[in-house]
Give the backbone structure.
Amino acid sequence: MEKPALRESMRSLIFPNSGAKPVTSHSPSHSQNCLIVFTRYPEAGKTKTRLIPYLGAEKAADLQRQMTEHIVGITRPLRVKGRLSLEIHFAGGSVEQMHNWLGTELTYQRQPHGDLGQRLQQTFEQRFQAGLQRVVVIGADCPEISAHHLEQAFHQLQTHDVVLGPAQDGGYYLVGLSRICAPVFQGIPWGTEHVFAHTQAIATRLGLSLATLATLRDVDRPEDIPIFERATARTANTAVASHY
């Protein structure tokens, strides 16, 4: 696992002047690029359940906490530049607990009910009905994602209906839309290695223009933990270098 000294160094660089709370962007609230992070409040025993037999409930929850903070951290340069707005859509916990964890300046919303497809569909529909033009959803399980990948996603949505970031395990770590396309979330075998292929096939059948990003790796199993350790080490090194 990540060394405490390295973790605290990284957190102080990503979240300066605020302890465990992220530095929030003062970017314009009218940004038409909306990034939504799906995550879960890191309560022991209720998150990263596949890793509990290996790490224990407390350490699995701590990994969930670190991974979410890492994702929020990589969005900071884009928020500061006004390239996107950020919303945290959470399961478990309460708004008060989310405020205490990630700060009061971010926008929080509880995830809707249903399976992943239903939650994604409702989320996109709500944001487009609110007048947004480009919406991207990611989880907290892909530490290899970078600000560059997010910029690419929103750039592709200027000319495409759908953008997907394929995961190495056959799923996807990112989905973005420039208009409501509910069928891309229907009839998908969630949790299998066929998620990306099925979604791609649906988009093709519907005649939707589809762009794809680089294939990245998720952290779902014990053997995936080094992926997170390497990603956070790179983030810390980049943050240190930017200060000199």
In short: The CA atoms of residues 156 and 211 lie 7 Å apart. The first strand starts at residue 33 and ends at 40. Strands lie at 33-40, 85-91, 107-110, 134-138, 162-166, 172-177, 210-212. The two ends are 28 Å apart (CA to CA).
